Amino acid sequence: MIAASVTETIQFYHLDPMNVVWHGNYVQFFENARCALLDKIDYNYPQMDESGYLWPVVDMRVKYVRPCRFGQEIRITATLREYENRLKIDYLITDAKTGDKLTKGFTIQVAVEKATGEMLFASPECLISKLEIQK
């Protein structure tokens, strides 16, 4: 499996009135790790656009295990789980120092032909060939 990780320090602007990270900010953390993963396979959003395909997120799940708090350094890891018919990316957020699990989740993206707006039921060859090289 191909994976990439990024680290982030929790800032004041990430917090909600209860002084823990607001639940909606986890989507941004996932996105940062997803972009690192897509960079690793040389198929991030500019390359998707150039290839003639859009990849909207059609499903996302988040499981909050423990809260993230101000000043905490977290590691967000994105792992590519499926790619033949869709992109399924798993996420794991851990405390960077202790390794304690804080949050997990996944996203699913599907290929949509840019010119027609039609969804594909199999991933396009331009993605498959990039991933075959990674094996």
Explain the overall architecture.
- There is one protein chain.
- The chain is of the alpha+beta class.
- Helices cover 24% and strands 35% of the residues.
- The chain contains 3 helices and 7 strands; from the N terminus they run βααββββββα.
- The protein has helices at 25-40, 45-51, 125-134; strands at residues 3-9, 53-54, 57-64, 73-82, 87-95, 101-109, 112-113.
- A 5-stranded antiparallel sheet has the order 1-4-5-6-3. It has a two-stranded antiparallel sheet with strand order 2-7.
- A hairpin with a 5-residue loop joins strand 5 (87-95) and strand 6.
- The N and C termini lie close together (9 Å).
- The model has no long low-confidence stretch (mean pLDDT 96).
